[in-house]
Amino acid sequence: MPKLLQSTLPVGRYAYDEVDRAFLAQRVEQFRDQVARRLSGALSEDEFKPLRLMNGLYLQLHAYMLRVAIPYGTVSAVQMRTLAHIARRYDRGYGHFTTRQNIQFNWIKLEDTPEILDVLADAQMHAIQTSGNCIRNVTSDQFAGAAQDEVLDPRVHAEILRQWSTLHPEFTFLPRKFKIAISGSAQDRVAARFHDVGLIARQSEQGRPVFEVIVGGGLGRTPIVGVSLRDDLPEEDLIAYLEAVLRVYNEYGRRDNMYKARIKILVQALGREAFLEKVNAEFAAMDRSRYRLPAEVVEAIRARFGAPAFETLPDGAESLAAQCRADREFAAWVSTNTHPHKQSGYCSLTVSCKPAGGIPGDATADQMDLLADLADQYSFGELRITHMQNVVLGHVRQDQLYALWQVLQANGLGTANVGLLTDIIACPGLDYCSLANARSIPIAQKLSARFADNTLQQEIGQLRLNISGCINACGHHHAGNIGILGVDKRGEEAFQITLGGSTGDDASVGQIIGSAMSEDETVDAIARIIDTYLVRRNPGERFIETCRRLGAAPFKDAAYATV
Amino acid sequence: MPLFENGQIMENGWQTAQEGVALPEGDVLVPLSRLAEGLGRNGAGRLGVVLEPADRVESLREALPRLDLVCVTFGSFRDGRAFSQARALREHLHYTGALRAAGHILPDQYEFLLRCGVSQVEIPQGSDPAFWQAAHTRFTVAYQPSVLDEKPEGTGLRRWLLS
């Protein structure tokens, strides 16, 4: 048995104290009061809507949906069991992990929501600002605090931003939603260039962090890669500078058209230089001392984070290699689902929530409980939700991987497809969402079944396939190497294909290759696109690289070959 | 419509300038476009200015010492520009006088208004004053600095709201 938790602090996340608990209790009471005022008619639906959205409550096609915040994607085993309980008690026995590292429940009753918020508050959780025109859940690297290539654990600063943005008096009624991601590694795993603000932290020579600030990126109807405003923001000015950016956005962002209200439109309209000038003018004029973030505040918040008590272990690569030689299925899983750890003898592993033919990102209450148990047993009671809609155990001993994998295998969670074609991102689509033009889930399931063969997927190699049910792009189709966009074609569900999207350092926006096809035609077209890649690629070339080298033409020809 | 300030319901003794009509005697609120006219007014009575959401706070810089009231307005409670205007009046222009919020506002926004520097609100037609009373003492803690410079709680970002 591994050692149990060394301290009472939760590993990888901020521990609440009495003041934080009191804050949440007051906010739940406020929401209970708002629900009562809505039911009595004191609040109109028009007035209630932004208030419920501030607490993560949407009205979808068939029911209310509650989106629970998972700050920087990190959740404890105890919290995961709370989520399982909510799935069982108030929903239909499952939940859905989202691309903002949150979880949403799709079958919620309005009158149950205050009680659910009570249950969440008991577990130091809430649904504040998971929706609405405010600063949303701050996302971070799913391998934070673990990755070999990490410079610093970005979650402490993500927590600072969570606190700063929580019910911010000035920025809770912005022109539109506002999303921040933060990375502590030069290897961008948070899609920083596709956020309203992306922050990339590094260590300064003085030993404190400095940040690159990227602004105005995003997907949605108008996909845009963000622009870098500066790469030398000192830690102590982190809050002041973001205040300045948000002030400029709140004052100048468009409010006449919700489709042109995101900060990316403002940055494009003004241009980088003019936008930067406004931010700098505000930054110069503001009372900087008021917003200064001193190192001691950072350290006080860091002190509320638990750290894993690693054991001193030799590198386990050799014995792991021997286990892999003996079991090829295990070898395939290790090759795709593990990530190098900075601590000798450990690795991070990604539990795929995308089984063959399954619904991307869904997890049952039983699976959540199992993952919680495994986190307690193997990873210091800590789990992370990824923006790819999977679950990460951050700190697993290499010599315990095999046993852990067998448990996952036995419970439908051992799929070896992380980063491969069937590691699909899909939005809820027309099965749930009132905005959607087409269902995203059935086509995801067909593609997942079609390419389920692991040898084939390994042969195809790294490939991101993202599906959105409408142009609002919640499935990030533009950011997929292959994207699928659901459209309405004369009253029928149909799908367009985009090619060439990518997140990370080489961020690019996928381009539509042609007219929309039916669901089955689209699945066949993608199979032919893959065949073309396999024939035309140079040795060692990833799909996106072949795409960039050849351009869209040969893939387009293949896609429409028999249509 | 009545005002709400420091937990008290109060009468609104200010008149609002009517378009096309000469400014009345007494305390009067004028739109930004009639600021010069208001400043040139003879006789007794205090002067205030109504800022629309698109107005620039900076345009009040010179006149501010001669104003007794600034009123920021909400066409819709979802349009949050007035929050920034209020905060800028306090932080950039160091305005210390009365700062009113009017228009379509909800008691649920009262804490935000106060923390952006608003000192009094005009209770909208049909809004139950009891909800404003309740909102006045509802919350005890916040997570970020504001122009009120509330007392920090401990060493983190938190602030005590009720002094």
TrEMBL record, chain A:
Which organism is this entry from? Acetobacter suratthaniensis
**Per UniProt, what is one Pfam family of this protein?**
NIR_SIR
Name all Nitrite/sulphite reductase 4Fe-4S domain ranges.
131-283, 423-558
Query: From which domain of life does this come?
Result: Bacteria
What is the protein name given in its UniProt record?
Nitrite/sulfite reductase
Entry's SUPFAM superfamilies? Nitrite and sulphite reductase 4Fe-4S domain-like, Nitrite/Sulfite reductase N-terminal domain-like
Domain Nitrite/Sulfite reductase ferredoxin-like positions: 64-122, 340-410
Is Transcription regulation a UniProt keyword of this protein? no
Sorted alphabetically, the keyword list is: 4Fe-4S, Heme, Iron, Iron-sulfur, Metal-binding, Oxidoreductase
Automatic annotation (TrEMBL), chain B:
Q: Which Pfam families match?
A: DUF934
Cited InterPro entries? UCP030820 (IPR008318)
The domain of life for this entry's organism is Bacteria
| UniProt-recorded name of the protein | DUF934 domain-containing protein
Species name: Acetobacter suratthaniensis
